[in-house]
Amino acid sequence: MHSKVLTLVSHYLCPYVQRASIVLSEKGVAFERTYIDLAAKPDWFLRISPLGKVPLLAVPRGRADAILFESAVICEYLEETQGGPALHPADPLLRARHRGWMEFGSSILADLWVYETTKDEAQFEVKWRALAQKFATLEEELGDGPYFAGDRFCMVDAVFGPVFRYFDLFETLFESGIFDGLPRVQAWRLALAARPSVATAVGEDYQERLMGFLQRHDAHLLTRRRAAA
Ligand SMILES: N[C@@H](CCC(=O)N[C@@H](CS)C(=O)NCC(=O)O)C(=O)O
Question: Does the global pTM surpass 0.90?
Fold first, then answer.
């Protein structure tokens, strides 16, 4: 690739892409996006993506862009090189703890992948319990908000905005109760949804696209909808 500005190689539904987009927006960095179809990855993409995954960040440099892969790496690079507000704590111990919670967010995304794609009811229930347990763990970690670490939006928030977004659609389908009894998580979710960088990390047709994805997977989650209807 040969870009003029930072370019985020994206997919419309990818939560890892969203976290990079959120960090770019929070830092006020101008960037472009290139979308690819993960079901038919173009050759140019396969040549530059070592794991065949999005996001990639193409960084203009001389004749050919430098390509960064892995969303956490991209976010850390942006934190180190771009202006705008710091999204990590200055204290190394606290910063390391935040990185741990970012990983925790990634583990929730792995659970969510199975939760939203499985056709199997038992597996769905296992993932419901895993997710409920992880959100309960977060309830213990959260303070008075509105964000993960208080007043200032941080990198952990950038990871969790896309996590909570899934439930905006899921809750139109059936009542999962996954956030019941977790007032801090619920308040955090609302604060993140209202943050412009989070809201604009996806297109306006995000929910339609996600619904199409669930239908293509013939997801068990959709049968919960029929059961609840
Ligand atoms: N650990 C990676 C995960 C990225 C990831 O799983 N991306 C998915 C889309 S959300 C992907 O590109 N999947 C394509 C594939 O695995 O073939 C990151 O943080 O960037």
Answer: yes
